[in-house]
Amino acid sequence: MFTQASQLIIGAADLGAAFLFLFGLKRMSSPATAASGIRMAGLGMVAAVAASFLYVFSVDPAARPHLAVNIGLALVALGVGGAGAWFVGRKVAMTAMPQMVAIYNGMGGGAAGAIAAVELFGARTHGATQLVVTLLGALIGAVSLSGSLIAWAKLDGVIKNPLRVKGQQFANAAVMLATVAVGALIVSAGHAPGGLLLATPTWIWIFFAGALVFGVLMTLPIGGADMPVVISIYNAFTGLAVGLEGFVLQNPALMIAGMVVGAAGLLLTVLMARAMNRSIANVLFTNFGTPAKAKPGAIQGTERSVEASDAGIAMRYATSVIIVPGYGLAAAHAQQKLYEFVKLLQAAKVSVKFAIHPVAGRMPGQMDVLLAEAGVPYDMIFQLDDINDDFAAADVALVIGANDVVNPAARTDKSSPIFGMPILNADKAKQVYVVKRGQGKGYSGIVNALFYSPNCEMVYGDAQAVLVKMIEAVRGLGLAAAA
Amino acid sequence: MDLSIAMTGFVALYVFMLAAFAGWVIIGNVPAILHTPLMSGSNFVHGIVVVGGLFALLNATTHLEQAIGFFAVLLGAGNAAGGYAVTDRMLAMFKTSDASPRRKHASHGRHRAHGHKKS
């Protein structure tokens, strides 16, 4: 009786959770409804977790004697894991968001791998299909765990440089093949306790070790600038692993949630790679980040500089200004000052818009979040396709902390490594101001033709200091007019 | 009445296919401005793995299984709680110009006033 009632409640809660996840993600298609979307998904999660304690009424007879201990362990794990991650997630700086997503994602992959481990060590799977799916989920989950941890270390600056040695790709392939071979061995042994050469549990340990090592090896050679693509891929991996373990546990909520995330992660990865003008294989298997040889002589003209105060005053008397922010803005913690300046311009009836490149920031959309954090309303923020035609009519384009995403060489110079990458047409504005720490190149090491263009003037200095000077200059004007 | 769910072979594949399709379509409609919260939000959604971890832990019979099951629930709970915390924080930051009561740009009719719910 209890068994049936608990099954009914668990089934209903999981069904509700699956619906709320889909509906919540659907509501994320507009900034106006997104906040309520995540709350709905959260509600689904709480319901599903609470209902899963009803599993106590239908546990294996073999697990009955351990039930009290297991419930205690479950409560402790939920409390410690949930509260710890919640506390960190509430406090972390918005600039550190890519690392946090990486670490939470690794946790999910690890959990999926651990579920598979319980199934494997307990020999609970029925038939070869379930065994294969369990192993596949275990492999993907474990790779996602160790790979995400390396991605976190790279984004957080713990690991500074990509580690590349000759023949690395062969070594990686060898580890992968060996792991798959061990998996095949486990399948062929079935649940026979003996196994080949070693006992089956030993092979299971080796299998997990191989998968974890592969995740590390695969991620180490990838450059820091490509980490967003890698996180997105691991996000898809974890989703896939969760979906597969959901099949093993016969839990449709896990299957649906996992597959939805798997597809979503794949789509985001494709979009990101496209915005960087690269293929996913290119990100994963080639050593990007080696500076391209600049071609001197291809660019005519000189870099001309202008005082911050003069640039600020020119923008005050412009009709329309489009701002192109890049990660350099966030690195200088200057978003607040920028919005302060923008509000001054708006008070003087200047039309101001923000133009965001898809790869601005260290993960897609991070620049939007950083601007939102500074209080910039989202209806002032425009994406590449929506604003690119407006540059031609704009009086001023203010490029601040961005470089490669406004390099016109991507349109014209076939020899440039970024040729074909979609860029923001800042160079088409009547006047361009570029705020930059000093003369130098972007992370890709490519010379920016924009800086040498006749309608461009450079404002050298730290973004924060430059903006303070601009604000002072415009305020000074206001006082003079009032006097 | 049998309430247990048995999903094998093609039925499971259909579920996978439909879910993957739904994910692709739903996520395809999310504007680029929300891609970071979207990534952390989908990250949160696969935190449902904690439910599988609870199932495995409650059915554990050996110390090894208990230890690994504990690990699964710990990590899964971290995934879910952390993913929710950061997503919710980020989404709370997105505001329209009309939302701030101090400055009123009544003439900005460019953006349709959407029924703005706050809770």
Strand order of the largest sheet of chain A: 3-2-1-4-5-6
Shape of chain A: elongated
How many runs of DSSP E, i.e. beta strands of chain B? 0
**Quaternary class:** heterodimer
- Which radius of gyration of chain A do the C-alpha atoms yield? 27 Å
Q: Note the beta-strand portion of chain A.
A: 5-15%
Number of helical stretches of at least 4 residues of chain B: 4
- The coarse silhouette of chain B is flat
Point out poorly predicted stretches of chain A.
288-297
Helix content of chain B: 55-70%
- Counting DSSP H or I runs of 4 or more residues, the number of helices of chain A is 17
Strand content of chain B: under 5%
Largest sheet of chain B: none
Brief summary:
The complex is a heterodimer of chains A (483) and B (119). Chain A has 17 helices and six strands.
Element layout with pairings:
The complex is a heterodimer of chains A (483) and B (119).
Chain A: H1 2-26, H2 31-52, H3 67-91, H4 97-121, H5 127-155, H6 168-189, H7 200-219, H8 227-248, H9 252-275, H10 280-285, H11 308-316, E1 320-325, H12 327-331, H13 335-347, E2 351-356, H14 366-373, E3 381-383, H15 384-387, E4 396-400, H16 409-412, E5 431-436, E6 456-460, H17 463-482
Parallel strand pairs in A: 1-2, 1-4, 2-3, 4-5, 5-6
Chain B: H1 9-28, H2 35-45, H3 49-58, H4 63-93
Structure characteristics:
heterodimer; A: 483 residues; alpha/beta; six-stranded parallel beta sheet; 17 helices; 6 strands; elongated; B: 119 residues; mainly alpha; 4 helices; disordered C terminus
Characterization of the model:
The complex is a heterodimer of chains A (483) and B (119). In chain A, helix 4 packs antiparallel against helix 5. Chain A is α/β, with parallel strands linked by helices and 483 residues long. Helix content of chain A is 59%, strand content 6%. In chain A, strand 4, helix 16 and strand 5 form a beta-alpha-beta unit. A six-stranded parallel sheet of chain A has the order 3-2-1-4-5-6. Helices cover 61% and strands 0% of the residues of chain B. Chain B is flat. Chain B starts with 8 loop residues before the first helix and ends in a 26-residue tail after the last helix. At the A-B interface, helix 1, helix 2, helix 3, helix 4 and helix 8 of A face helix 1, helix 2, helix 3 and helix 4 of B.
